[in-house]
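User: For my dataset I need records formatted as: sequence, then structure tokens, nothing else. Please produce one.
Assistant:
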Amino acid sequence: MRSSLIIAVLAALAASPVWAKLPPPSEEAKAKAAEASAKSAWGGKVAAYQLCKAMDRTAAAYFAALKAAGKEAKPPTATAACVDPGPYSPAPAVAPAAAAPAQKS
């Protein structure tokens, strides 16, 4: 009983740094995070485009094989065209707005 109390106290002391509050990120860190997010989103679009093209090639090969075998297949279902996301272009850097000087009335 006593050893379990000691273990609980030690576990609470070991976990106390977890509750520490982190300082807010700097502007540079925010910019890097935004850049990483944009690059990740672009990578997802590229992956979706590549998957779309691969599915189109697979379907074309399937229907060509059916035609070569003399079998008839129902026409393929029309799907949306594959959209090429183009090359990655980082977003332009946005300078923080300067504080407007106070106006005297």
